[in-house]
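Why run this: before we spend reagent on co-expression, it is cheaper to look at a predicted model of the complex and decide which construct boundaries make sense. The entries below are exactly what would go into the expression plan.
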Amino acid sequence: MSWYCAYSRGRPVHARYHDNEHGFPSSDEKVLFERLAMEIMQAGLSWDIVLKKRKALNLAFDGFRPDKVAAYGARDIARLLRDSSIIRNRRKIEAIIENARRVLAMRDTCGGFAGWLAAHYPRSRVAWVKLFRERFVFMGSEIVNEFLMGFSLLPGAHRKDCHVNEKIRRAIERKGRSDKICAIMKKDKRNN
Ligand SMILES: [Zn+2]
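The model came back. Tokens follow.
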């Protein structure tokens, strides 16, 4: 969403997000899951609404810790549907809970959510959407697209001339190094 570069200027909540999070890579399961949940919450609404409700959403969803959310039952769904500070949509809430369970399941099979993303990078937009639909629920193509762009797994987060691109490039470089270290450590573990 390269329009966001101009839009975020002069809007403090958005400027902070634009300058420090939008398009930046992450290997943190909680960060990835929070973003996936925010993209689901956004469906049919504006990013402005979701970002302004981010704090309330985090409070309501136990900081988007996948273990916590995966364990939610009917009582939690009822609590969330009563919470006027968040986006009260049963289908979205149930999808976020189900996706938390899917994230937990990834821990055993593919080196976690981050490992799964890294293993499938790069691929086309269409192929990503197909992959996400096999793995998660409530995956409209816009949700998948925005999620991936948000971590620079698909291009287009920022305008070509945006000052943040350089910061992101350095962050990807750092992440590339730690991913490599992680791969070496995993190999050592197997050899021992
Ligand atoms: Zn930008």
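Residues 24 and 151 are 5 Å apart (CA to CA). Residues 5, 18, 158-159, 162, 164 surround zinc ion (CB under 6 Å). Bring this page to Monday's planning discussion.
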